[in-house]
Amino acid sequence: MQKLKIVGGKRLVGEVRASGAKNAALPIIAAALLTAEEVILHNVPDLADVVTMGKLLNGMGVVFERLSRDTVRIDASGVTSTEAPYELVKTMRASVLTLGPLLARFGSARVSLPGGCSIGARPVDQHIKALKQMGAQVEIEHGYMVANAKRLKGCNIVTDMVTVTGTENIMMAAALADGVTVIENAAREPEIVDLADCLNAMGAKVRGAGTVRIEIEGVEKLHGVEHTVVADRIETGTFLCAALATRGDVLVTNAAPQTMDAVIAKLREAGGTIDVGEDWIRARIDTRPKAVDIRTVPHPGFPTDMQAQFMALNVVAEGTSRTVETIFENRYMHVPELQRMGANIVVDGHTAIVQGVERLEGADVMATDLRASASLVIAALAAQGESIIDRIYHLDRGYEHMEDKLTALGADIKRIKV
Ligand code: UD1
User: How far is the CA of 327 from the centre of ligand 1 (A)?
Assistant: First the structure.
């Protein structure tokens, strides 16, 4: 079991490079299943979730290897199995992203149902419904989605809610389907645009990604590709929040500011001076940040994946803020941990009211999910004294070498192995 030991109270100052986006890399790695030719991906973050996706593909007979620090090579010419087993799916829900590509290319797939996760029930009914609409037979057998289809057929799909991986699964399945698929009420996340760009570079015909209506004209075959994954807007936003919470001055390079409008607006509202270039963002502040209200909504609104980090900022800010989480039903697990550090937070259903305090105190806290872990790191950096954050495997799922990056910014942070 590994923990992070953080001695807080130091301003973060300096430059840090954003990694590639986990939530773009995972679907794009799954998309490599759509072709028998080689796929080379650059800017792939070195994360536990990427390792899990690699293992999942290896288990299917796919070559998945890291050629360098941020480049992977995938060769799905020799697929021997179209199964995503429970052992891997339960550790990473994004494993369900293999369902669409497997079904489209091989006509069958057996993918474990992910089950619930700590932030909510997170069903995949929309993925299943859409594939059925495209002509697949999908049965639930012993906890697995067992899907079969001779060739999927294009159709019009209106999802009941905006779903990111749902949109991605449908897009990938539709890429090799017969005819045109239209997704209405599609998710508009930048990671969907990146996936569409990669699919199009593989010979797919996807139009409208980044809007609520995506049209995919199926093709017979996709070919190999070399693609660079978009920067991680959530990791970038996490460093920028940490900068403001510690009254610091941080420049994030290799970033994608054009994907971060809602977050940048909130950082400015919090009193930060935010300078933005083509591929960099700098956040600085020399006073106490101001409390900001947050309401999580699908992109281009404020992302649920930044809610916990902004709460860490709000707990040390001046004033009272209101956070409303509309995407996931149980995404306030960081609250009791932040309270252990002295935060003043009241949760009522989907709403959290935070009254900012002058200072937090270091404490022993427990990470409960990926973004909650990030909020605890920010709070610990801002707090006086020492904090120990337990269960940081959650953090390792989605943040590349976080303690090294924070150390370079002047943080006193160490990984301890127990
Ligand atoms: C993705 C992101 C995750 C982010 C989330 C919301 C990846 C790998 N993960 O997760 O980091 O927090 O988007 O921005 O990209 N829903 C259903 N039925 C479905 C699908 C979704 O009810 O079939 C519900 C979910 O329970 C949730 C909401 O729809 O309440 C949105 O979920 P969705 O966008 O699908 O999240 P993920 O794609 O799992």
Answer: 8
